[in-house]
Amino acid sequence: MFKNILHVFVYIFAILYLLYVSKIDLSGALDELGVTGIAIAFALQNILGDLFSAFTIYFGRPFEIGDYIIIGEDEGTVTKIGLRSTRIQLLEGEEMIVSNREITSGKIWNLQKMPPTSCRIYHPCISECSTEKT
Q: What are the pLDDT tens digits along the chain (134 aa)?
């Protein structure tokens, strides 16, 4: 995909250079390209935000597939991390798809990365108790 985009830019640059060498006025065309570039940038803003957030998740490793996480009021197990979104299986069995930009802009609690804890519960059990006493 990156190679195709690079080819398009090379062709556009080559055409503009040929028009410049031919002494054809390019001011109107360059204005249109500028406006088109701004429109494309606004259209791709959310997609690029999700893409950069995916890189943050991949390289920062706040969570991995199989981790049990809490995001906002939702909690579940991460099943897939994609370029635009992350899939989380909730406790009820539902699958929640969350934008990567939304995940990285909020708080994430990763319960898998917590240190192991233990808890002792003492529950007295009297085995010599007859049914008449109870």
A: 667 778 888 988 898 788 888 888 777 777 888 888 898 888 888 888 888 998 889 899 999 999 999 998 999 999 999 988 999 999 899 999 999 999 999 899 998 887 877 666 776 766 665 556 55
C-alpha to C-alpha distance for 11 and 16, rounded to whole angstroms: 9
Rounded Cα–Cα distance for residues 38 and 42 (Å): 6
Kindly state whether residues 52 and 80 are assigned to the same domain. yes
- Domain with residue 89: its CATH number is 2.30.30.60
The residue segments making up the domain with residue 68 are 47-113
